[in-house]
Amino acid sequence: MRLLFLVLTALTCCAGLVVGNDHHHRCYSCDNHLFGFNQYDRHCGNHDYSGNTDSCGEDCYYRFCITVIHANGNIERHWAYSDIHHDGQCKEEEDKTSCYCVGDKCNNDLCDHCNMPTFAPTGTPEPPTQPPTDPPTQPPTEPPTQPPTDPPTEPPTEPPTEPPTDPPTEPPTEPPTEPPTEPPTEPPTEPPTEPPTTTEPPIVGITCFDCQTYNPAYDNYDENCADPSYDGNTYLCTNCGSCFTEVGEGNKVTRGEAGDFEDGECHEGVDSNLGSYIRCYCNSDECNNDLCEDCA
After folding, report:
1. How many CB atoms lie within 10 A of CB 56?
2. Is the pTM here over 0.70, yes or no?
3. Domains plus CATH for the chain?
4. Of residues 234 and 202, which shows the higher confidence score?
5. CB 222 within 8 A of CB 283
6. Do residues 190 and 201 make contact, with C-beta atoms less than 8 angstroms apart?
């Protein structure tokens, strides 16, 4: 009986260790804007993110990681401070979509499995929806039937017969005899040798201007970032589809890379650090050199 008690006690302790270790895995933790709650990383919005991580701690019981996609293009990744979710769960709200997962650094995607809503740009009304109109149905019109017309029959006409005419006979003419002329002999010409042409694979992604004016501690700080025709720091993002410019109060300007947005799409909002801001998107290399003048 004592031996059975010791065995059950050991199994209970081991099970507790297994459960406890499930809570000690790491989640990706970042924000792609400077005033988020997590560590700033301008690449936080990339697909297959692989950057900053954080652990919930030895005494933490949270098991879920989370990725949050905001309507204005902000991305955040961190621990989910709740344990009432399930692996793969999607939470869709008016201004953001969140997805949850269980596993070490599992929150590296952009909630691709969720039914992502389409966030309408600020100030752009959506067109009214009307039911499709079927065209009127008319019976097919058959062409009139006419009886076949036989061609007229005429007797064949034979060509007239003429007697054959012999060609005149002339004595043969011999060509003059000249010694044969040999062409000059030239050495063979070899074709020029050209080096082989190497074809490099195309670069997939987009190159954007990448800078900000209000935090010198980060490597993309540039005091000239607020120039209306900026031509400075750039970054090639192989997993992005758009560039953006964000203009806030007090000459706070950010330029960078984002996911897939409509060319010319605009978002407006209010942030505790930026104040009122506007963010605009474009879809070609180094297109984000303006200050969102077209969104006004």
Report:
1. 20
2. no
3. 19-102 (no CATH), 206-295 (2.10.60)
4. 234
5. no
6. no
